[in-house]
Write a structure and sequence with these properties.
Helices cover 78% and strands 0% of the residues of chain A. Chain A is mostly helical. Chain A has a domain of 117 residues. Chain B is mainly α. Chain B has a domain of 109 residues. The chains are: A mainly alpha, B mainly alpha.
Chain lengths: 193, 184
């Protein structure tokens, strides 16, 4: 495992982050992502600031994280931890992304149930939710950048969107149909790259 | 329902859903609502919407909403049981999917030269893009109940993309607009 990880990353990074760095970095990502839009923040910290990965391999990781079941950010942590330090790396990264934020959120939750009768609390939460939704939307546009000249990709994306949002098909059948079709359209031809 | 029974119902509910959370936790929003509000009556509709806002706004993965839902389910048995139920709920939703992802991540690089993997990565990116926009629309509809709320969401989206201003600034502005009563 470690040999392969090394060869994958040769072109990207000479020294790999250790377990503590992974934990600390993911905690940093989690706390920066105040108000959602976490993929945006992990991109900013891991690719732009720490330069652990290229933008391309980050998007690959994000794709894998989204394809498999589970919350994207948890899966992304598993993926990032795994390519640098295998299983222990994954556990360190997942612990980093969730341990402190979760404990903090549960304390806020207890306060909410204690004080939810207060109208200002409800109004504040409505405002925060609106901001969070905007951040979630911005991530879609950020990924759109990657594909903006690839008309085949855009066509596939539009068809998937329409199936889910307009025709209200369930996600699982949509992925099971659109996935293999998209894969065959992008099947590598001739020598790679 | 006793505290222990509640906890078991919570754990089984989220264990069952874990492997269906494809394309990110938000795709399960409807399912959570169905179980927590309609089936078990652990939370009211308004509480569900408030907790969604809280989970989205707080630092950390938005999938931590499940912990808050567990907290709500256990709340009537006191704060200690609420916390125990909350941690149980979060572990239940994460455990199955994380085990699958661990296996996937461990083998991903071994399939590096396989045409299957290359096609998988290149082909499924655009599929993910479509899912992402669809989930965004669902999130917009769940979070926003007025035109002003929608306007705020679109403004945040625009400024996050076009400027380097910290998103925290927008969170603050939207929170303030909320408190002043503009959003709902």
């Amino acid at each position: 495992m470690s040999d392969q990880s090394e060869s994958v990353l040769q072109s990207e990074q000479a020294d790999r982050p250790g377990l503590r760095e992974l934990f600390v970095c993911m905690t940093q990502v989690a706390f920066s992502a105040f108000g959602g839009g976490m993929s945006l923040w992990s991109h900013r910290i891991i690719v732009e600031r720490r330069q652990w990965m290229t933008s391309e391999s980050f998007v690959t990781g994000l794709t894998v994280a989204r394809l498999f079941p589970g919350p994207n950010q948890i899966n992304m942590s598993v993926y990032i931890g795994s390519i640098f330090q295998g299983l222990p790396g994954s556990l360190a990264a997942v612990a980093g992304i969730i341990l402190f934020p979760f404990t903090l959120l549960m304390l806020l939750g207890l306060l909410y149930f204690q004080f939810s009768a207060i109208a200002e609390v409800n109004r504040l939460l409505a405002g925060l939710a609106a901001a969070a939704a905007g951040m979630a939307l911005s991530m879609g546009f950020k990924i759109l950048e990657v594909y903006k000249t690839d008309y085949l990709a855009l066509t596939i994306a539009v068809i998937v969107f329409v199936s889910l949002q307009i025709f209200r098909f369930h996600l699982i059948p949509v992925v099971l149909v659109a996935g293999p079709i998209a894969m065959s359209l992008y099947w590598p031809r001739g020598p790679r790259r | 329902m006793t505290a222990i029974q509640t906890r078991w119902h919570v754990v089984l509910t989220f264990l069952k859903l874990s492997l269906f959370s494809i394309g990110g936790g938000n795709t399960l929003l409807q399912a959570y609502h169905h179980e927590v509000v309609d089936t078990f009556g652990w939370l009211t509709n308004r509480q569900f919407s408030d907790l969604y806002g809280l989970a989205e706004a707080a630092p950390g993965p938005s999938s931590m909403l499940v912990g808050l839902l567990g907290l709500g389910a256990g709340w009537k048995h006191g704060p200690i049981w609420a916390l125990i139920t909350a941690y149980s709920a979060e572990i239940a939703i994460l455990l199955p999917s994380t085990v699958v992802m661990l296996i996937a991540a461990a083998y991903w690089n071994r399939w590096r030269d396989s045409p299957w993997r290359i096609a998988f990565e290149r082909g499924l990116g655009p599929v993910t893009l479509g899912i992402l926009f669809s989930v965004s629309v669902t999130v917009l509809k769940t979070a926003n109940h007025s035109l002003i709320a929608y306007a705020l969401s679109f403004m945040v989206c625009f400024f996050v993309l076009k400027t380097k201003i910290s998103p925290l600034v927008f969170i603050g502005i939207c929170g303030l607009a909320g408190v002043l009563g503009f959003v709902r």
